[in-house]
Amino acid sequence: MASSEKSKQVVKRIKRRQFLGGAAALSSSSVIYPISAAPDSWRTPGAPFSNYGVAGDEQESAIRWITSNPAAPGDGVSWSPLHELEGTVTPNGLHFERHHNGVPKVEGAGYELAIHGAVEKPMAFSLNNLRQYPQVSRQLFIECGGNSSSYWLPEPARAQVGHLHGLISNAEWTGVPLAWLLDQVAPTAEARWLIVDGHDAAGVTVSIPFDKAMQDVIVALYQNGEAIRPENGYPARLVVPGWEGIVNVKWIRSIQLARQPLMSRFDTVSYTDLQKDGRARRFTFEMGVKSVLTSPASGDQLASAGVYELRGLAWSGAGRIDRVEVSADGGANWRDATLQEPVLDYAWVRFRAPWEWTGEAAILQSRATDSAGRVQPTRAVLLEEQGNNAYYHYNGIVSWAVDEDGVVENSYL
Ligand code: CO
Prior knowledge:
alpha+beta, single chain, globular, disordered N terminus
């Protein structure tokens, strides 16, 4: 971890302590009138209009944390600061990134998406063509297959929740259903797979089943109401609901319809899951049922005993979240959290539950159940099933240990 990141953590801890202290104070019916603290300067004529707004001072600590590969320029990730976010929409500037060779400079003018291969009418779509199609909007999460991968390691990593689980974000994506474009090119009976590549220098190329493409994949042009930003795939990217990040191809260049998958590097060497018997699962697209508490969370400091709101996020690659339970005693007892409406398929759900901290040691956990009936497993069960050769698809229950001093740390129980 870079020293600048460490200093961010210190700043964050102080801020969070103040905040939680304030929440605890409110619960003990303190007097808040009259309003005497506001300085006169707040009521003097203010700053001018701005053409494009920027975040306020409080948000200075809300940044993406970058983990890059010094041996391969442009290869790495930036983590979304889950501990700084509320609700379910990730601001565009804080959406996580995973690049294999940097952010290519792709221009809208001259951009084309080619669809060819096992089709009767190969076509190329300009950005203007794509914009002319009817559009759909959906709130969807995108999660890197490697999110939370530190949990496969023997010891729990010491980091804040965003740096442990922040290779996921949730946005409203707007664009053209891929099925409509495929309909235009008239796929032949041979078409069983899509081989999709991007404009980046790594030449990211993945294979996606034709049936999923016809079901709900979007060629997205807009993210949270504005054109997709360069680092998230401008001018167009695939959004594949519920499926691992790598198939949500950014800067999409072409789609080749084919009878078989390509078995590219990204289909085989990476994004496959080595099991304990030494064999690997491949094409494990669907993300698991998962949840994590974002407050209190690892790196926080509880100021004093009292009532806190447990806040967290839940999601599933199989559809909707039906239930989230929370525990404060390491899973001995569970109770239901409230799910914030709307609860949408393949999207983040914010859950909340009150919790009284007595000042004693506690283990905070959350456990999600999805519409397919899947229940988030414990880490022990996940390792029992898969061994520890795996790297992708960690969706086990996350445990935050609170000690008698109110220090909250990542724990394996
Ligand atoms: Co996978």
